Amino acid sequence: MTDWKRAAIVALGGCAAFAAILASSSPAAAAEVLDGAKLPWLLGLPFVGILMSIAFAPLFVREWWHIHYAKAAAFWAFLTLAGLVAVKGFDVTAAAFVHNMALEYAPFILMLLALFTAAGGIAITGSLNATPLFNGAILAFGAGIASVIGTTGASMILIRPLIRANASRRFNAHVVVFFIFLVSNIGGALSPLGDPPLFLGFLHGVDFFWTTQKLWPETLFAVGVLLALFLLIDAYYFKREGRSGASGPIIPLRVKGLVNIALIGVVVASIVASGLWRPDVSFDLYGTKIELQNLVREAVMIGVALASLALTNRASRAENGFDWEPIREVAYLFAGIFTCIIPVMAMLKAGKDGPFAFVIGLLEHADGSPNNPVYFWTTGLLSSFLDNAPTYLVFFELAGGEAAKLMGPLADTLAAISLGAVFMGANSYIGNAPNFMVYAIARDAGVKTPGFFRYMLWSGAILLPLFAAITWLFM
Questions:
Q1: Alpha-carbon distances of 184 from 69, 382, 435, rounded to whole Å
Q2: Are residues 182 and 425 in contact, defined by beta-carbon separation less than 8 angstroms?
Q3: Is 346 in contact with 35 (CB distance < 8 Å)?
Q4: Which residues cross the membrane (predicted)?
Q5: Which of 39, 79, 146, 247 is deepest in the core (most CB within 10 A)?
């Protein structure tokens, strides 16, 4: 059975299960709101546990983790749900779980799936001489297209050719690190298509082009500084390797699977359309409002993935080194993260009445006006470990939750939240989904990519001073 037929069966099964749940759901299930002010802080421990598992297990039980990471994610998710059932009961827990999975996780993972599958069908072959200028040009190009086809799409198209180009280089791990900085994160700051947090903001009413108009100065500054720094570092390693020019024979470049570019365009169009077309038709799923335009968008995402598998030559995917493991790992781990984060998010949303009151109190000046630098750093540092998409939503709500107001009088606050979520998602491998996929692809290709904590040494030394400069210059 071919890949696309298997995927079709899974998709149809998922749709049938979704329809069954939809038919049997009860609006009364969500009658009681999950009040974070009344949740014990111990319910946040499974979230800490899953983060620690992702950080330490690959270091100490690498082979076990590679085989059993899905079980580990399920274990921590089960602890979270069991704790919530014990404290709040089954109905409230089920309603909170369905709400998070249907409105946050499903759009998030289906967009990643569509872009991962389509981008994975675009095979760039030929010789690519990994000089510092060439590597810098690829990073600049990737950062440029990340806001158009998403950080996931740009990462999946470019990471494999970049790894192949640098395969003969003795020092090449830094190339992957800067790729994550620029292509998998910061380059996606200029549109809702670029990064999941901005996509969620778009779903909550932020205008499509608001980020482009508001965030371009900070984005241009960050990309320019990082590219200049990368060229210096790469030139140093290039010279240390004893190279002075091209590193191999030149073979003309060829691009296969061009139909996938059109399919990525369909993904982009469906996201834009879901924000413009609002038929005011919705369904109740265990107390969660599911709007028709969003259902259509998710169906398009599944359709794009299936179409890409059906229309792309399997030899092209094989030539591209395409493998399902990166997206499978992201899907399982982030399903666990999105589940474990439910009580943590509720506690944060409780504001000054919740366990995180000391953090919330820092967000305002004495006169009650928002403290934008603190919004930037708090959103960003939490995004480094809580995943930047749901963290963005929490601070979006803490800042008022009204898109019109946040794009108007509080535009600087929304800008701080957006920049913190997108930029600082690069601080760790789990800050943004493409980070983990790039890490997994590079690791499988034999690149000596830094582990969880070594990567954070890189990001801490390079990104934190950059973010401090952005705070001083722009906030």
A1: 23, 18, 6
A2: no
A3: yes
A4: 40-61, 105-125, 137-159, 171-190, 219-238, 258-277, 330-348, 414-432, 452-474
A5: 146
Q: Is-contact 419 373, C-beta < 8 A?
A: no
Q: Cα separation of 421 and 392, whole Å? A: 6
Q: What tokens does 177 get?
A: 């690190």
Residue 190 within any structural domain of the chain: yes
Pairing mode of beta strands 254-256, 123-125: antiparallel
272 CA to centre of own chain: 19
Query: What's the DSSP call for residue 283?
Result: E
Give domain status of residue 5, yes or no.
no
For residues 332 and 69, the answer to whether their CB atoms sit within 8 Å is yes
Alpha-carbon distances, residue 151 vs 137, 322, 369, 414 (angstroms): 17, 18, 33, 21
250 is written with which tokens?
A: 């030149």
Tell me which residue range forms the domain holding 363: 33-474
With beta carbons less than 8 A apart as the criterion, state whether 153 and 113 touch.
no
DSSP symbol at 241: T
**411-456 pLDDT, tens per residue?**
999 999 999 999 998 998 877 878 888 888 888 888 888 887 889 9
Whether 21 maps to a domain, the answer reads no
- If DSSP codes are grouped into helix, strand and coil, which group holds residue 207? coil
Lowest mean per-residue pLDDT among 62-76, 115-129, 259-273:
115-129
Confidence category of residue 33, pLDDT binned at 50, 70, 90: low
Banded model confidence at residue 14, pLDDT cuts 50, 70, 90:
very low
The model's pLDDT over 156-194, given as tens digits with 9 standing for 90+, comes to 888 888 888 888 888 888 999 999 999 999 999 999 888
Decide if pLDDT at 23 tops 50: no
| Separation CA 302–CA 79 (nearest Å) | 30
* Token output for 52: 């620690």
Q: Do 264 and 157 touch, CB atoms closer than 8 A?
A: no
Query: Looking up tokens 């720094």, which residue turns up?
Result: 229
Which tokens go with 166? Answer: 């640098």
pLDDT at 259 over 50: yes
Q: pLDDT class for 244, splitting at 50, 70, 90?
A: low
Give the count of domains, the chain.
1
Question: CA quadruple 110, 113, 116, 118: dihedral positive or negative?
Answer: negative
Nearest partner of 329 among 69, 109, 81, judged by Cα: 69
To which residue do tokens 């603190």 refer? Answer: 374
What tens digit of pLDDT does each residue of 116-149 get? 888 888 877 766 678 899 899 999 999 999 998 8
